[in-house]
Amino acid sequence: MESIDREPGRRPTIRPDERVTMSHGGGGRATAELIRRIFAPHFANPLLEQGHDVARLERPEGRIVVSTDGHVISPLFFPGGDIGSLAVHGTLNDVAMGGARPIALTAGFVIEEGFALADLERIAASMGAAARRAGVPIATGDTKVVERGKGDGVFITTTGIGVVPDGVEIGPDRLAAGQAVLLSGTLGDHGVAILSQRQGLEFGTTIRSDSAALHRMVADMVAAAPGLALLRDPTRGGLSATLNELVEGTRLGIAIDEAAIPVRGEVASACELLGLDPLHIANEGKLVCICDARDAEPLLAVMRRHPEGREAVRIGSVTAEQPGFVRMTTAIGGTRIVDWLSGEQLPRIC
Amino acid sequence: MESIDREPGRRPTIRPDERVTMSHGGGGRATAELIRRIFAPHFANPLLEQGHDVARLERPEGRIVVSTDGHVISPLFFPGGDIGSLAVHGTLNDVAMGGARPIALTAGFVIEEGFALADLERIAASMGAAARRAGVPIATGDTKVVERGKGDGVFITTTGIGVVPDGVEIGPDRLAAGQAVLLSGTLGDHGVAILSQRQGLEFGTTIRSDSAALHRMVADMVAAAPGLALLRDPTRGGLSATLNELVEGTRLGIAIDEAAIPVRGEVASACELLGLDPLHIANEGKLVCICDARDAEPLLAVMRRHPEGREAVRIGSVTAEQPGFVRMTTAIGGTRIVDWLSGEQLPRIC
């Protein structure tokens, strides 16, 4: 958020009583004014300044990938981030999981009438700062307003465009028995942070979301092991949904080791208290990497050089046994099937 | 909509009492099931079937453009379309206005808990049909669910990716005095159709939205006159907002001729009754083209060969006089300034 203050001369003054009105979504002068006051100062970049509905990007050297993600998180502000930074990180990560270098983001806002303009500016500032830190411009956007009671503050749908370097072929069809399963860090931080905030729970220390952009770490991983098989970010549904999706209906299974999976002490305590399983909880700054076993240690070394991967570990292997299932050696030495939940534990977690 | 029936074997059966639940947005099995039953059959295309969060596109031959648009229209279904076809057409048109050939769409859904699954399928079918007719795949998507009373049925944010052929340089910086202003057809159809539907008004005949994809017509226009200066679709704010945006703060003005601007009789009657001005009303299947005066007739001939441009006409010129303003010679021979409304006449029109 410090970057709000980097351009003090351009910072517009928003009065605390100013609210979003239906006319801010009308596409006329009021919309232009909202963009000029709230979005333009924080998103400033040459693409956006083209001032079209459509933004022109660089001519890409490689294959183009695209990913889109709606963000409806509640509450909008939480320890470790807000809907704005989350929307940037989440979509950058989806693009990065395709092995791609993100080159641009778009942002579509659906805002509820009556939403405080100061809160919208806080979100825009956080989005702009996240995009600048990531080195990826918000190239174009859109603003709609719905009547009070027909939305919930603000929803943000971000789309990311990326370029996949030649030679990188990542995808679930690349999975094979014997490959290693790596995890970039602790599980459950995002989900537990949101739940604590939502329910006003205290666990001694404030649990912060792990919301972070992973594309720089991914770029180094892809450079170190261009043949890596698969990258996934365990968001909604957590690690269990991510791993189950990969093997369901295939002739492969995944075996993981509970003792190897890092979970912060306070997150584990919160999960125990609330009856939640960290394997099912959404993360917003973690990735799972599946690679040849011989690439595991070199990739872990690369990951650990990045703050987002400092606690990276190998948690298991792809197997030919028990195809279609994820099984886990538990901390006490037994084995259990890691289930894929049919619903969700935490609604509106992202 | 006829294309729903093109793949009868793949059509899932949705019971009339089935409703969207919070778990459909959880990212687990229920989300996967919703996608399998509702979206996959209607959006079917090789990109979507890659089954990633991220879709890989062709290697583009040209510069990439991107555009995004949220759709919050109310009501969801209206004469001439629904939110699904509108979301496809609207974003294809934004991409086309950059002079680009659209190559892929993404779709992010924010659905209200309790929304009828059958209505969601109707929307998915209409989106899928619109995308197939346009020849542009829905490459990837996202589904979120919010609690009852925190949304309004469904909001759809679509993003379009396009490729601009080399040699095409379209943009407001290309405007110059003496250029012609062309309009592809009648004004006001979309806005008046929505308003009539919303308010249960009858005007003798049903007024239908003009919602349509314009990219094929644009491709022919760009091929015929690669040097055309600018394309814009007069959506929210109508023709008046579109033209005012172009000249505001510049050293150019625009002069248009009211008698040349086509408005359907029933739309004109409705506007008169409701105290609306067709110049301010949103259109969803029209474009404004600004080009060298000598290209005007050849471009009109190209436009008139397409159903979307059958009523294309020249409505005015870019001028050096009265810079920053749009002025109109009225049907009775006077002159008036065409204002840019500060709010909007019709909320949630797109």
Explain how this protein is built.
Two copies of one chain form a homodimer. Chain A has 350 residues and is of the alpha+beta class. The first copy, chain A, is built from eight helices and 14 strands. Chain A has a seven-stranded mixed beta sheet, sandwiched between helices. A four-stranded mixed beta sheet of chain A has the order 2-7-5-6. A two-stranded antiparallel ribbon of chain A has the order 3-4. In chain A, β3 and β4 form a beta hairpin. At the A-B interface, α1, β1, β2, α2 and β5 of A face α1, β1, β2, α2 and β5 of B.
Structural class of chain A: alpha+beta
| CATH-level-4 superfamily name of the largest domain in chain A | PurM-like C-terminal domain
Low-confidence stretches of chain A: 1-9
Radius of gyration of chain A using CA atoms only: 21 Å
**In percent, how much strand structure appears in the residues of chain A?**
15-25%
Assigned CATH architecture of the largest domain in chain A: Alpha-Beta Complex
What is the CATH fold-level name of the largest domain in chain A? Phosphoribosyl-aminoimidazole Synthetase, Chain A, domain 2
Q: Could you give the order of strands across the largest sheet of chain A?
A: 9-11-8-12-10-13-14
Count every helix of chain A, treating DSSP H or I runs of 4 or more residues as helices. 8
Q: What does the average pLDDT of chain A come to?
A: 91
**What order do the helices and strands of chain A follow?**
HEEEEHEHEEEHHEHEHEHEEE
The global form of chain A is globular
End-to-end separation of chain A: 20 Å
Percent in helix of chain A = 25-40%
**How many strands of chain A?**
14
Main sheet characteristics of chain A: 7 strands, mixed
Question: Quaternary arrangement of the chains shown?
Answer: homodimer
Total individual domains of chain A: 2
What is the CATH domain class of the largest domain in chain A? Alpha Beta
Family (chains A, B): Belongs to the HypE family.
Organism (chains A, B): Novosphingobium organovorum
Protein name (chains A, B): Hydrogenase expression/formation protein HypE
InterPro entries (chains A, B): HypE, PurM-like_C_dom, PurM-like_C_sf, PurM-like_N, PurM-like_N_sf
